[in-house]
Every structure is written in structure tokens, then in C-alpha cells.
Write a structure and sequence with these properties.
The complex is a heterodimer.
Chain A lengths: L13 H34 L16 H28 L8 E8 L2 E5 L5 E3 L1 E5 L3 E8 L4 E5 L4 E5 L5 E6 L4 E7 L11 E7 L1 H11 L5 H11 L3 H4 L22 E3 L5 E3 L2 H9 L22 H13 L7
Parallel strand pairs in A: 1-5, 4-10
Antiparallel strand pairs in A: 1-2, 2-3, 5-8, 6-7, 6-9, 9-10, 11-12
Chain B lengths: L7 H4 L20 H5 L4 H29 L10 H20 L2 H14 L8 H23 L13 H5 L4 H28 L12 H33 L12 H35 L6 H14 L15 H29 L8 H24 L1 H7 L3 H31 L5 H27 L14 H31 L53 H5 L1
Helix pairs in contact in B: 3-4, 3-5, 3-6, 3-17, 5-8, 5-9, 5-15, 6-8, 8-9, 9-10, 9-11, 10-11, 10-12, 10-13, 10-15, 11-12, 12-13, 13-15, 13-16, 15-16, 16-17
The chains are: A alpha+beta, B mainly alpha.
Chain lengths: 318, 562
Amino acid sequence: MTLPVFFIPVEASAHAGQVDLLIWTLALLVALLAAPVFVLSAIYLLRFRYGRRADRSKAQRGSVWLEVSWSVIPFLLVMGFYVWSTKLFFEQQSPPDDAMTINVVAKQWMWKFQHPSGTREINELHVPLGKPIRLTMTSQDVIHSLYLPALRIKQDVLPGRYTQEWFVADKTGVFPLRCAEFCGTDHSVMGGRLIVQTPADFARWQAQAGADRSLAASGRELFDRLGCAGCHGSNAQGSESPIRAPPLVGLYGRPVPLSDGTFAKADDQYIHDSIMLPNKQIAAGYEPRMPPFGNVLDEEQVAQLEAYIRSLGGKEDK
Amino acid sequence: MSPSQVNPRMSQEAVPDTPEERRSYLAEGHSLRSWLLTTDHKRIAILFMVAITFFFFCGGVAAALIRLDLLTPAPDLMSNDGYNRAFSLHGIIMVWFFLIPSIPTTFGNFLLPLMIGAKDLAFPRLNLASWYIFVLGGLFTLITVVAGGVDTGWTFYTPFSSTYSNGAVFLAITAVFISGFSSILTGINFIVTVHKLRCPGMTWGRLPLFVWSIYTTAIIFVLATPVLTITLVLVALERVFGLGIFDPALGGDPILFQHLFWFYSHPAVYIMVLPAMGVVSELITNAAHKQIFGYWFVAGSAIAIGVIGFMVWGHHMFVSGQSPYASAIFSFLSIVVAVPSAIKVYNWTATLHKGEIVIDGPLLYALGFIGLFTIGGLTGVMLAMIAADVHLTDTYFVVAHFHFIMVGGSVSAYFGALHFWWPKITGRLYNDMWARLAALLIFFGFVMTFAPQFVMGYEGMPRRYHVYPQVFQPLMVMSSVGSSVLAVAYVLPFFYLFWSLRYGKPAGPNPWGATGLEWTTPSPPPKDNFETVPVVDKEAYCYPEQGRAGEPQTQQAESVDA
């Protein structure tokens, strides 16, 4: 895991290459814009030094044309880069539909990863080469930031909220994984390794690391253990018991009518909040009877429940 | 002094002594009481200078500890918590107790009335109150240190600061909270002074550019600081009473804190830079003995920076989880705000053209500002590009970028101002050879300290790391060695400047042949500045072509020189 210290550090994705191209051409432009200041200052210092004979007649006190040109030309040049950079950024905002989702939970001072297969790892993230990977991230405590320098991406990880970043690694190997947002005592050692493997190696690793059940199956088990079925029905299909709660089958990704007349989309964030802070948004037609699970469940368990609810089908198969 | 050690312009003329019939402000009393109860803007400027110099030293010690510890990747000098406290203290002290007040409260205080031909600021007692409030805030900072320090960084990000930190967050917040009122009062004082106390003939178009930049800074003080004040109160409420404002576990929103904090703290960067730009405009025109190139563009760009500076705060938050559309807009506005800064830099360069340039200490400091600010500003343009920022933010690249602007730029300008107006403030001349040496050392020490940090950041080295990967050690060592050069360079002026107080030649009213009204008074100026109210009949920087000395902005200068 040795990075070359000078010049271009290892690039493990196509995106990383594009970011480097942006940064280096931008650095070139910036150097061009700075050059007149350094070069002309030096020349003027020599030529117009006190006591040196030089033609000082007709010194200008200003020129609107000069002012306009040295404002507008650099601005337009930089705007070209603005369009390029913003486009690159927006590409990085929307993961493809076939991306594999890995849940990330940050806590002081470690990174926990849960694969859809149910495999869990700490401070190490194994991913297959060439497959789009989406990291759905949240924090158990303060703000952290998952930084993968070899991929040129980072994203803050917030408590109580999901953020995401995605990538396609195109180089196998071991790359650094770091926390980039100051998070307390051991911030500087809250790091780990990103391990990119060929799909075959990755499958072998997963078989070896062996989860006894998938993420959704763990969620199902939690669902039963916590007694969710009492209100949501034994297969989460809704219940006719006196305490009614909405059915969860087919819920994922659909708009949910709320008691205040608005709608919410049943995405991960909605499901997360409905479990942890159920009184925040109440589904229309139901009593606000659900107890908050904010003090009962940790973020990893919530992710398992979400996986279970996702597995019950819905509008978007994500 | 040999001729090479003095400014050639002033060696031409005999230096008249300060007229005895007009006592200087320094001779108005020597007791402690005469200083602590003074309402003279010049004495209050000195009080501020003493206070911020003390804090510059404190913040510098913290920086030295950090750089020493980072010589090796392992945590050897301090514990992790100790290191976190060191950089937090360094940031809090340097930002709020040195950089923000630095030029406005010292040179702003000293020069503003002199430059516009006034006897004092509009509210002299408010001015003194502002100093006492500042000192009280500083006292709380020192108490914070005694109480075990604070580990939040100067940014106080929630919910770490409000819920999780085990440092003395409340005390630190109180310190910053109090010092904010000092900024606000100084800001109001400056605004009213510029509007109401300009002497006859001192129209807006004749204001020295330093006044324009201090005026803009004062407006930012008044508009931005209250937002920080309120935000800190909210953090304190959450920390002390568990009121859910920023911590999601209590139903709050941590991103809200970042919006509020940067709404102040980005304009605060311009509080640090605009006065420095004003200083540089004065120093460059005088060194070149030439009218500034594009007066209205330089003055107007200060206002433009002040206004647009309020609309770019979101560029600190590209990876925070704010809307990507908001990021796109903030990115655009951040490029726009770079334009007026570029205008200034290009105009200074053009001012040198066909000048008659004396390469002395003040000029070298001003050129140091221009060089370091240009690098800092242009790397800022790189950071304004979202796709680049996603990789570079929260790394050493950002650390290098803002140190180039705030330390390389603003501190160089502070030292430039100190050298340029030292003869006015103290009435003495220092040895210019030492000044040139210190200016060069500051420039090269600075570049050696922070240039490697650009490389480290690009290589993926996050900021605020006590323990770091082995590969970064060579660059870290380079940076630490540079910082020791920088430390020596910063201490050097204290020796030759204090030496000049006793052994320096008397400066006379106008040693540089400068044109500002402040140079028409004796050095040091008497308590009421001007014997009679000056009447201004020229614009600023009326340096004649091929001339030795400039024409002062008022014709009454001779009578004062006597």
C-alpha cells in the first residue's frame, strides 16, 4: 500500500482519472493566469527601479479596456472548467440502477460495512472489480466522512440521515480508506482498507467470510424478534388486530399518504425515520401508536430491517 | 546608517524634529492609567497591537507544537486528545484573536481618522469599550486553556461540539461570543466615522484605498458577526440544556449549523483579507511613487468582494450532504467572487509599470502579499470546482490554500503596514536592511512550510490527523523545517523594531514622501492629529511624474511641518 508521494497518485477508477485531468488542466490555467503577475512584477521592478533611467512618460492611470479584458477573459476561461467540473460532479451524484448497495455505518472510531449477502466487515471494504458499488451511509454518533483517495471521492456521513457515494473500481489492489471529517480523539486512526478484487476472488472471499444469512433474512429475524408482526401482520401484510399498522408488502418506493395530507416517498430515509422517530411522519388513516426504536436499535439493525422491507417488493427494485 | 540601509527618497532631505509646541500622543501621559483610560484612537490602536501580538504568540506556540509533533507519523509529543486541543486552540486564537482584529483594530484604528482628516473616531469611548470586550474574550480563551482546552477545531461542528466533545466547549464558545461584540462595535464606529467625519474636500472619490477596504470590512463586521453570535448561543443551549437544534438524536439538523457558521465564517475570510488589500494599495503606490492604476476598479472591487462574499458560503459544504443544485450555484458564485480579487492583483501589477520603484522593506512585504495571495486565491478557484473539491476538501490542500491567503497574505500585509507606518506611530526609523531580510525570510519560510501541503492534500492526506501514513513523512518534515524558518522570520522584526525605538533616527513627518493626510502631521502625531482641520483639494496618490516627493492631499501641509 505505498502511494508514490509525488505527481499523480494511484487512480483506481475512471472517475479518478477524469478528476486528475480536471485538476491538472485547471492547475495549468491557474498558472497561466498567475504568470503575468509574477513575470511583469519582476520585469517592472528591474526596469523601473528608483534611480534607473527608463522611459516613464505617459504612464497610464487606468484603462477600462484593460480592466474589462483582464476580468472577462479569465472569467470565461474558468467558466469552461465550471461546466466540466459540475457535469462530472452530477455524474457522481446518480448511481446506476444495477449498482450493488453496501450499507456503511460510521461510529467513533470505526467503519462498519454490511454487504447485501449479509457479510459484515469492520474497517475493511471488499468490492468486486468493474461493478458499480453504491455506499449507503449513516453515522451512529457525530459527522464522519468516508474518503477513498484512490477513487477521488469523499462524502460526509451524517447521524440520522443517509448519504451516498458510488464508484466502479477498475484496478485490483488495496487502497486507503480514511475519515476526512474531524470526529474526535481517534479521528486520525479511523481508517481502513478498500480491497478491490476480481469477481472470482470476491466470490471466493464472500464464501469464506460466510454470512449465515442475507441482510434481508437478518431483517426478517429482527422483525419477528421485536414483535413487529403484532401490528404489521405476520408477513408484514397488515393486520386486522385492534392495533392496526400499515402493511409493508409492496411499500418500498411508493408514495405514502400522510395524516397531514402530504405524501412521502417510502425510501430508505422514510423507513429509517418511521422506525427510529415514528411520530415524525404518520401514515394517513393510522393512529400514531408505534413506539420509537431510536434507543433500541442501532443503525446496522435498521439497515437490516430496511433490507427486509425492500425484499417485500415495491415500485423500485433497489 | 549607511545609505544602503535607508530609503533613498528620504536620505535626500534633512529630517526636521517634531515641533516641541505640539506634544505627541505618546507624550500625553506615561502612567498605566493614561493608557488604560485613553480614548485616543492612536493609543487604543497600540493597546490592540499589544493584545493581538500576545495572542499571535500564543497561537504560534500551538502551531509550533503541531509542526514538531508531525515530524514523525507516530504520536510522540502529544496524545491524540492533546494534538486535537493544540490545533483547535491554534485555530480559535489565530482566527478570532489575531487575524480578524489584526489590521482593522490596529492600523484601522490608528489611520482611519488620520487619513480622512478627523480628530478621532466618531465614538472614542465605544472604541475603548471595544478593546476591553476583546480583552475579556481573550481572557476566556486563556481560561479555556487552563480548564483543559477544547477539541472541536475552530469550526465547532455539531453534533460533536454540542453533544460529544469532552473539552471546555462552553468556555471557548463564550470567548468567541464575547469577542464578536468587539468586532461589531469597531465596525459601527468605523462606518459612522467614514460617513460623518471626513474633512472638507475629502469626497468618496478621494478616499485612500485603505479607507475603502476598512469601510467594507466594517460593514462585514456588522452584518456577519451577529449570525455567528446567535449560532454560538444555539450551540451553547444544546450543549448545556440539551435543547435539540443541531443534534439529530435530539431532533435537530447538523447541516443547519454548517450553513449558519459559514454564513459568518466565509465573509470572515474577507474581514482578514480586505484590510490587507487596502494596505497593499497604499504600499505599492508609495513604493512606485505613482498614482494607483484604476482607482475606481480597486475601490469598487473591495465593495464587490464584500457583497458577493456573503453569497458563497456553501462552497465549504460540497460534500456535507447539501443539495447538489445548491452546490452548483455556490460553485458558480465562488468563481464570480474571484473576479474582483483578480482585478486588484492585476491593477497593482499595472501600478508598478513606469513607476519609480524603491525596493524597501514595506514593498517587499507588499509583494510578498501579492505573490502568496495570488497562489492562495487561484488554488481557491480550483477548490471552487465541485468535482475537484470533492477530492481535495478536508485535506492538506485546503489547509495550504487558506494559510496562503490568511497567513501568507494577510500576515505579510500586517507586517508591511507595521513597517510602513512605524515611523508615523513611533516617530523613529528602523534599519531597512533587516526589514528586507525579514520580509524575504517570511516569504520563503512560508512557501517552504505550506507548498508541500498542497502536494500532500492532493495525495489524499486529510487534515487534523495526528497519526499519518508513513509515505507523507518527507513532505511533513519539509513543512516543519519551513515553519521553523517562518518562526524566526516572524520574531526578527520585534528585535530591530524595538531597537529603533531607542536608537532609530527621528523619522520626521513624511519619511517616504507619501501623499496621505497622515503624513502631513508630525511623527508621532499629536493627540488631536491636526492643528487645523485640513482641506483636501486633490485625489489620493498625486505623485508627480519623475518627482522626488508626492504632493500631499492638502496644501496646508507646510504649515504643519514647520
